[in-house]
Design goal:
The protein is of the alpha+beta class and about 140 residues long. Helices cover about 45% and strands about 15% of the residues. It folds into two domains: about 35 residues; about 90 residues, no CATH class.
């Protein structure tokens, strides 16, 4: 059979192979009949703790957090502004997680000209209009 299905099948096999190479557990087939990697409970707990910490120190900002202890990293962002491809990454082998989160969150807020304290809707909407990579994916994180 020709067409995109063949490419999809090849990509599917490659992704399954990569998942197995990484040693991740593979769950039952997902909605498209493809295996879905299981979320490590420890990683989920770390991400939840990161979210609590960020919300305590920078209340109201809409953070996204992911922990991947197998790679030795945690990462976080503000998806509405940064999109889904830009993350602040903390290497757990070389940095303390709290110091990395404090530095990263401060840098992110500063680059978008947002207050480090409580969430301010007016400045957030201005930043979204000027910089949101979720709205226009080609936009870069401001420097």
């Amino acid at each position: 059979m020709d067409g995109p299905w063949v490419g999809d099948e090849v990509r599917h096999r490659r992704s399954c192979h990569r998942i197995r190479q990484l040693g991740r557990d593979v769950a039952e087939p997902g909605p498209l009949g493809r295996p879905v990697p299981r979320v490590d409970e420890r990683d989920a707990a770390i991400a939840a703790t990161m979210m609590k910490w960020l919300n305590r120190h920078y209340p109201g900002h809409l953070w996204g957090c992911i922990a991947d202890t197998r790679q030795g990293i945690v990462k976080f962002n503000i998806p509405i502004l940064m999109g889904m491809n830009n993350w602040w990454v903390v290497n757990l082998r070389t940095h303390d997680i709290i110091d990395g989160m404090r530095q990263g969150a401060g840098q992110i807020l500063e680059r978008y000209r947002l207050r480090r304290g409580r969430f301010d809707l007016t400045t957030f909407l201005e930043a979204r209009d000027k910089h949101s990579a979720l709205v226009i994916p080609s936009r870069k994180v401001p420097e």
